[in-house]
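Reply to dn_fold:

You asked what the input looked like. This is it:
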Amino acid sequence: MRGCRLDLYPAAIWSRRGNDEVLPGPYAWNRSSGQAAPASEDGERRQKEQVMTKVAEFYSVNEQKKPPANRVHHNNNACPPGRDIPTNERRPGNGGYRLCRDCERLNREGR
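and this is what came back:
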């Protein structure tokens, strides 16, 4: 692995002791010591905060074809029905529709 920058790879995959050793748990690469060390709680908290995928509200142009009670808008990229809407069929805003149940659940869970 000559010339390969180890700091670009997850420490769980590579270690200076050899690339066949897999380190358990969340580890971070410490550049100054050249060792893998357990990730701090602060780092773990930041990772969890970045998971939230709330986005600007949008709805599908096809919502008008649905019965009024079934029309919804989305605000979370992790929502499967929202992800299925092609970008060219999305319209900004909520369109006066209720929030999708999947988006509600994902937002509540912080995902």
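The chain has a mean pLDDT of 74.
Hope that clears it up.
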